[in-house]
Amino acid sequence: MKKQQIFNSNMFWVAFAMLGFILLPSIALDYGIMESTSDEIFDAMGWSAPNLSWAWFGGLLFIPLISKIIAKQNEYRQGVFEFSVIVGIFLFVFISATIAKISLGYSIFVLVLALTALATNALAKMKIMQSDKFVIASLISIVLLIFFFIVYPTVAIFISMFYNGSEFVPTQALKIIQQPYVLRIITNSLSVAATIGVLATLFGLLFALYTTRIAKRSAFIGKIFSILPIVTPPFVVGLGVTLMLGRSGYVTEFLVEYLGFSSNWLYGFTGIVIAHTLALTPMSFMILEGALKSIHPSIEEASYTLRANRYQTFFGIIFPLLKPALANSFLVVAIQSLADFSTPLVLGGSFDVISSQIYFYIAGSQLDYASASTLGTLLLIFSLSIFVIQYLWIGNRSYVTVSGKSYRGDVQELPSTMRYFITFMLGFWVLFNVVLYGSIFYGSFTVNWGVDYTLTLKNYIMLFGQGLDDGAWPSLIQTVLFSAAAAPITAFFGLLIAYITVRRDFKGKKTLEFLTLLCFAVPGTVAGVSYILAFNDAPIYITGTGLIIILSMVMRNMPVGMRAAIAGLGQLDKSLDEASLSLKGSTFKTIIFVVLPLLKPALISALVTSFVRAMTTVSAIVFLVTADTRVATSYILNRVEDGEYGIAIAYGSILIVVMMAIILFFDWLVGDTRISRSKAKKMN
Prior knowledge:
Elements: H1 2-8, H2 10-23, H3 32-35, H4 38-44, H5 52-58, H6 62-69, H7 75-100, H8 106-125, H9 133-160, E1 163-164, E2 167-168, H10 172-177, H11 180-214, H12 220-231, H13 234-245, H14 250-259, H15 269-293, H16 297-305, H17 310-321, H18 323-339, H19 342-347, H20 354-363, H21 369-394, H22 416-443, E3 446-448, E4 452-455, H23 458-464, H24 473-503, H25 509-521, H26 524-535, E5 536-537, E6 540-541, H27 546-569, H28 574-582, H29 587-598, H30 600-616, H31 632-641, H32 645-683
Antiparallel strand pairs: 1-2, 3-4, 5-6
Helix pairs in contact: 2-8, 6-7, 7-8, 8-9, 9-24, 9-25, 9-26, 11-15, 11-18, 11-22, 12-15, 12-32, 13-15, 13-22, 15-18, 16-17, 18-21, 20-21, 21-26, 23-32, 24-27, 24-30, 25-27, 27-30, 28-29, 30-32, 31-32
Protein name: Iron ABC transporter permease
Domain ABC transmembrane type-1: 186-390, 476-666
Subcellular location: Cell membrane
């Protein structure tokens, strides 16, 4: 009880913030606290000289003072006054630091923690969220996270369009957009995204129909499809396509000799479409397979009893019910295609797209933030437009097919012609992928693909045979560390957001959900550029550090943890939470001891998926890495740019094998847990 009283005291949090002010720097250090000299640390301390940090921390003293003045008022009015002062202090710190160009130091993090705790106490007095302080603190933390690492970077990329260095040039964005090449790359990007969106969704639907309506013993193909896009970076698929169909590819040799093809036929629109369709179809498959499994068979049975044939049932019943999933598949695939610059880099040739042009503006010889941010804004507008069109198309229509009745029934067979066509397409797809991945692994052991096919271990020796400080080891170790740090944070905040949005009702709930899902709609390329623009200057200067890479991984993958937790919570009756709360268990204890154990399989899956996605991500973090914070995918991409395809393919092969092993191990672990529970249930 005494502990609760201490944490409820405003004076405790004011003292906590003051302790941070005394012990930690208020101004950011250029080389970090471990590598800075004692003089540099002293100069960064807020108390070392008169500066704004005195006003930032001094403002906290107004909170207990106001509490004492209005002590006779009711709790609600006390909370309103206190919360208003806290918001004022927060805005004053952020705005004044931005205007004065002060990079915020470690003590400001302590200040934000104290302000969060004080705001929690104030909102609890206002009876917000039934005065549940854990939920209030979680909600404030989520809002701050979304504001600083989604909204703020997105705003930064809009503002940067109108600045040439430090000079405000309002007509600059218009001049950039009016350049002839911009219309060309916009047309290229949209044509590629639309084509891949349709093709990947079509193939994803065919293969989802196979695993749910045709397959019996071969249903394991679905698991392989689910794993492939996660463990394979898109440009590694592009490299595999190059080995098969490029200038030196064995398929191209056949096409040139017997069918009169040009040796350069692959490069451009065709190559990007082939590689992206191969890489992104499994994503569409996962979305559509889940949707097909959720359609209740009794609806099909009802159609047949009304004498509809199998084609009428499929196109009149099943296909319309798949509209949300089809729209979602198109959205995800099109946005992923728009965002990926690495595949156009490998296979595009002279066929430029927006994402690759943004990459050249940032990583090329000419650093042009204005053009990069303008094109990034265009890319964001296109992605959000797809998002909005999908929402308007689906609207508020109902697609519910599962009622409270326990009858399940059996799924009906598809028309014979459709079954044969789907089986043929899947057979061709599997064969092509086997040859593709076989080419990747075989190519990693050759001296020079297309010239000398002699088997050698040279590529692997250059990567991993020169000690831990050279070759691929530094990037691999750092990638594992960054991903291992980001994955639990992703799963934790994903669970918090899911719990609050599913179990609680409050004003702004829809806005919170939209902003969280905005991570899906914001292309990775845009996210990377926006992070550079937002965090490369005061007040938050973290560019070049491991922290910005971890934050990027967390924000990009947070919807993964959120969706996994929402799916799991949908299966848990709300009465379990209510029973815990009625026994005087706090929300924190309810989550830890009731919700978390029941969601363990879903959260482990989210944790592993987040880890693997962080390991193989490229579009967002390639702009954020430096020589000291290089990651695996950026290392591979650099090898591709240098023409060292053998080394790039070898590293990609290692990533695929390691990631596949991790996923299969945890899949076995979760599956083993479920089997053990089932056995225990039977024994009881």
